[in-house]
Amino acid sequence: MTLPIYIDAYSGYKANERPETSTLDEELYNIAEVEDQWHEPDAEYFRVRTAEGKRYILRYNQQADEWTLQSGFDGDALLGRPGIALVTVNAAQIREAESKIEGCGYCHPDDSELPFDWILERVAGKAGMVDFMMVETAKCPNCKQTLTEKTLVELK
Length: 156
Fold this sequence. Notes:
The chain is α+β, with helices and mostly antiparallel strands. Helices cover 15% and strands 47% of the residues. The chain has two domains: 2-80, no CATH class; 85-155, no CATH class. Strands 1-7-6-5-4-3-2 form a seven-stranded antiparallel β-sheet.
């Protein structure tokens, strides 16, 4: 199991060379040490220890420029995400959210600034500490690319 996570990383001779802090659900975690690091063809992995002594495995997908928290060590407790409400978005709400966008980060990369979940919050009438579970795939009305909750979109 994985979970997208915001990482502030040190960039030296290359971008995102090593994670320094992570933020999940508005909670900041200072990374005290990178204990181990390994590479796979499509990603880099970091086993880190926070200032509080917790250990996590972070994955960086360079092609997608995306960090994720992996299961294992103390990450399993964070993957449970206490205090986060899970909201189901039905097909009609997905179509309504799609109708409110002009394009996405794939077809309008310079104009897409809001994550799709910002629109889902308004359509579903839910805000705050929520995660959305869409009952079917959302598509960009312009390029038909699949939209996730975190895909950047441009409003109409």
